[in-house]
């Protein structure tokens, strides 16, 4: 079992990572971080310092697909995503990535906002 989160260098991504880290620590489960590039080493150091068991999986560029695929492979108990504020019209339609994750996820999805 695991918790899956994507690493994005945005306020929403930071909030999702913090929530996923807290959930993994509380549940005593492994945290799988999807991401590559800038900031991943800092994330790894932070998780090691916190004593959170973790793995980093490189992304393919389609974060929604990566999160769902890894959730299936890791038999995840939770996916954590960050949401951003949207315009009044945008509120009627969830972001396409978030919508895909919610519809295709094999487990519960925790959506957090900054």
UniProtKB/TrEMBL annotation:
CDD domains: USP-like (cd00293)
Pfam families hit by this protein: Usp (PF00582)
Gene3D superfamilies per UniProt: HUPs
InterPro entries: Rossmann-like_a/b/a_fold, Universal_stress_UspA, UspA
Signal peptide as annotated in the record: none
Domain of life: Bacteria
Every UspA domain range: 45-113
Family, similarity comment: Belongs to the universal stress protein A family.
Name of protein: Universal stress protein
Lineage: Bacteria, Bacillati, Actinomycetota, Actinomycetes, Micrococcales
């Amino acid at each position: 079992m695991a918790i899956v989160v994507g690493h994005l260098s945005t306020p929403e991504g930071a909030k999702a990572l913090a929530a996923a880290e807290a959930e993994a620590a509380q549940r005593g489960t492994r945290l799988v971080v999807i991401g590559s590039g800038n900031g991943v080493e800092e994330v790894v150091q932070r998780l090691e310092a916190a004593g959170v068991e973790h793995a980093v999986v490189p992304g393919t560029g389609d974060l929604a697909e990566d999160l769902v695929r890894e959730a299936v492979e890791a038999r995840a108990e939770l996916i954590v995503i960050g949401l951003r504020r949207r315009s009044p019209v945008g509120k009627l339609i969830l972001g396409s990535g978030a919508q895909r994750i919610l519809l295709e996820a094999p487990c519960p999805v925790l959506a957090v906002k900054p």
